[in-house]
Amino acid sequence: MSGRAGRRGIDDRGVCIPSTAKMMVKRSADCLNSAFHLSYNMLLNQLRCKDGDPENLLRNSFYQFQADRAITDLERQMKVLQEERDAIHIEEEDSLENYYSLLEQYKNLKMDVRDIIFSPRYCE
């Protein structure tokens, strides 16, 4: 609701603009995200207390609730992305696999040569 409250002792009443109130009722609520971050100090304080249970603290936090609630949506997104990945058709896939294999062999040989050159036996 928007408007202006009356000034104490001066105004008899305040002013309210109902169109804003109607808009606030109709629109959805703002998203609320947890700002919980476990720090070392928080963990040590939990361990120091007799009844402290850091695992319970995490398990019952709003952050964990939001993470658990997001799992189903993330799994759905993962399934869609996997289906998209499986639908991709690469022409001459065998040639690409062969090229990648040769590239890996080249990298390994290059590292072997470097190791031989910089080995103590070769430097003498």
Automatic annotation (TrEMBL):
Q: Does the keyword Coiled coil apply?
A: yes
Q: What class of enzyme is it?
A: hydrolase
Exosome RNA helicase MTR4-like stalk domain mapped to chain residues: 55-117
Give GO MF terms, alphabetically: ATP binding; hydrolase activity; RNA helicase activity
Q: Enumerate the UniProt keywords alphabetically.
A: ATP-binding, Coiled coil, Helicase, Hydrolase, Nucleotide-binding
| Coiled-coil boundaries | 64-91
The secretion signal range is: none
Which EC number(s) does the record attach to this protein? 3.6.4.13
Q: Which PANTHER family match?
A: ATP-DEPENDENT RNA AND DNA HELICASE (PTHR12131), DEXH-BOX ATP-DEPENDENT RNA HELICASE DEXH9 (PTHR12131:SF25)
- List the protein's name: RNA helicase
What is the organism field in this record?
A: Helianthus annuus
Ranked from the top, the taxonomy reads: Eukaryota, Viridiplantae, Streptophyta, Embryophyta, Tracheophyta
